[in-house]
Amino acid sequence: MHSKNILDESRNYIVKHTYETVYLISKCNHSKIIIGDFYGEPNGATIDTDERFVVMYGCGIILYFLQPPFQEYSYETNTSQWLEWGRIDPIMWVDKVIPLDNHKMKVIFENGQTNMITI
Fold first, then answer.
1. In angstroms, rounded to a whole number, what is the distance separating the alpha carbons of residues 98 and 107?
2. Residues 103-110: contacts with CB within 8 Å, 24+ apart?
């Protein structure tokens, strides 16, 4: 990683943040789009190995699907472009998310507890 603000990088994408805002940058055309926003900055992000989605975490979790048309993230929006967990009451403080297979992710909370999420 070239910068402390880069959260993850894959063959075609870079995920980075500036303060609380998370961006997806295309390596092909250098386009940049907001894909998340976190209270207190994100703790991290992981691009799926098949580049199907990006999972971002910190104050909750945002799962952003890497499929056109890429829609810019906004609060309180119902869309098929992303899913959210633990972003409002009750808030989940997430330390790490580990994609396990096509449909499951292991969530590690700040208090050390773990849980599984199925997409």
1. 7
2. 105/55, 107/57, 107/61
CB–CB of 16/7 below 8 Å? yes
* Percent of the chain that is helix, strand, coil (3-state, to 5): 0, 50, 50
* Euclidean distance between CA atoms 117 and 112, whole angstroms: 16
Report the largest interatomic distance among the alpha carbons of the chain, rounded to a whole angstrom: 40
Question: Is the CB of residue 53 less than 8 Å from the CB of residue 40?
Answer: no
Residue 102 pLDDT exceeds 50? yes
CB atoms near residue 119 (< 10 Å): 14
Q: Is the pTM of this model over 0.85?
A: yes
- N residues, the chain: 119
